[in-house]
Automatic annotation (TrEMBL), chains A, B:
InterPro entries: SpoVAD (IPR010894), SpoVAD_sf (IPR038369), Thiolase-like (IPR016039). It comes from Gemmiger formicilis. It holds the Pfam family SpoVAD. GO terms for molecular function: acyltransferase activity. It comes from the Bacteria. This is Stage V sporulation protein AD.
Length: 338, 338
């Protein structure tokens, strides 16, 4: 392992050996419909015995884990440790998932940056010999998130044009030590909190953009690379507003992003699906990673990408107290399949 | 690094190079009063410009970090990464602390087990060469926690005899790579979620006990040790109810705990301080670790201990939905000062 600035470069890269994405109805109607390993038309999972949205989100996580481990062809008892987190207060979707799985567990909170944070920690553990098989997972659920962060759905509140739609989705990755077949994790950069005093809870893209720019700039500076060294740079989830701001900011920095895609703009058709500025939620970038980015790397359609998940670190309490919304972005560099 | 079962043993142990504990008024009146590096008589921090309990908790964290880094004699710019988390929904005390500190940051959620989880991850990063200087920190605040998990203080709700008092306290540790002076971290064991169907939010000790027993038993089995191999085994925070249950359980397992202390029973005088069954909150075990355990190891009064922080993984939402309360316990093994 080599450390350059905030970036950890793996000399013997661990690999993402298997992955799976699970989603709900709206996600099954979007451009990535065929990318999901599992979709449900009933995101309440009523027939499966779920009594509320929070339980349903946890079940969606378990579907992603089950399918991921099935692809990896290992039982859950062979997993050494799991990193998981979600948007629910006290990360209960993940806690209840891990109760069912019974795997050693380190709980994570990174808001919508969770997929990159858990994948980064999983890669560190696999690269450092702390574990042979590590799970990284996260989720979000539109209905659980709306009533927690904004208003209960029953109120029928109007959504502003800058609002983003919390994805009902989950993603799970199994990371293994160097030498296993899969998609190599080349580096990890843990982000620093940025706060540019955005106070609008319906404009997450603007709140998170500075964190994305900060981590990207630190990564490029530490590694001596620039955007054109990558087949693609994926952020998640800035939506249309945050994406436009990021392009503007990076152009000002002399590093225009010509090969950038945002997971929040990939998961839904922003013209026809009534998601306003795009998707969000920890499950959004997780599902795009597991449904699209990793498969394209595995198939040789991409050979080197940055996956930069962004999170807004407020709560409903701090928002009502008038606090601004800090953001964070963690970056995972992925290479062509080995 | 050697892996045995769920336990990571460090062949070249990283060290806790510096630490600090910060607390409030009640904590300054308890048996560990002199153990704190900082205490305030106004836990609202009104004169410091805090407008609410949540901000005050974040400020308490920053006090602990400031003092810890001052003892280590390094500026915060020299810290490679920080692991932090707390009990507030979306871990906002830590998020806002990290906004002020500007250090690369991985957010953690482990409820009251957070100090052991962050310290364990910090030790892994320092041992594996991922970082040279790592911060591990956490906090809790009685007033922020009560209104979030139970009822606002203004309601004047009666407390049951099994209830525990959330500590207004914070602890911070600076972990450095092997070879630095300090208290060595000999091993880390990340726990597995346990749920013995306790539904009483005023009996956290009973809810968390099975997790403590599970992690202890896995640790002893993996390492071939037994309780008498340690000068002391500290849990945090089971309180009097959980402690009695743990002693009963471990005796049944043939591993009686004669040298066990619970951080929840150490921080307050349970006879005179009106804390019912003892202290709790992520800051409770953090303050006892930084105020008592680490100083005793540094002074040669202890030579080998287990620090086993326990967390209850519910939220107010899951509690009201009738879910049972899962628990988790992470274990950090500490040695005599080098």
């Amino acid at each position: 392992m080599t450390r350059r600035g905030d970036t950890l470069l793996f000399d013997a890269p661990p690999t993402v050996a298997a992955w799976a994405a699970a989603g709900g109805k709206k996600e099954s109607e979007g451009p990535l419909a065929s990318a999901f390993d599992f979709v449900t038309q009933d995101a309440a999972f009523g027939e499966q015995g779920c009594e509320n949205w929070e339980q349903a989100e946890s079940l969606l996580q378990r579907k992603a884990v089950e399918l991921c481990l099935r692809k990896a062809d290992i039982p859950r008892s062979k997993v050494d440790i799991a990193f998981a987190g979600d948007l629910q207060a006290q990360c209960t979707a993940s806690n209840y998932t891990m109760r069912e799985l019974g795997i050693p567990f380190a709980g994570i909170y990174g808001a919508c940056s969770t997929m990159a944070e858990t994948l980064g920690l999983a890669a560190v553990f696999a690269a450092g010999g702390m574990a042979e098989r590590v799970l990284a997972l996260t989720s979000s659920h539109f209905c659980a998130a709306e009533r927690q962060f904004r208003t209960p759905l029953e109120y029928g509140a109007k959504r502003t044009p800058t609002a983003q739609w919390t994805a009902t989705a989950a993603g799970a990755c199994l990371v293994r030590a160097h030498g296993s077949a899969g998609v190599p994790v080349l580096s990890v950069t843990f982000g620093r909190v940025q706060d540019f005093a955005v106070h609008d809870i319906n404009n997450m893209g603007a709140a998170m953009m500075p964190a994305a720019a900060s981590t990207l700039l630190r990564y490029f500076s530490a590694t001596g690379t620039s955007p054109q060294d990558f087949d693609a740079i994926f952020t998640g989830d800035l939506g249309e507003v945050g994406t436009a701001l990021l392009h503007e900011q990076m152009a000002k920095e002399g590093l225009p992003l010509d090969n950038h895609k945002d997971c929040g703009c990939l998961l839904y058709d922003t013209n026809s699906q009534n998601v306003q500025a795009g998707g969000s939620g920890a499950g959004c970038s997780a599902a795009v990673l597991c449904g699209k980015i990793l498969p394209m790397l595995a198939a040789g359609q991409l050979r080197r990408v940055l996956f930069l998940a962004t999170g807004a670190l407020m709560s409903q309490t701090t928002f009502l107290q008038g606090e601004s919304i800090p953001g964070i972005a963690h970056c995972v560099e992925l290479g062509g399949a080995v």
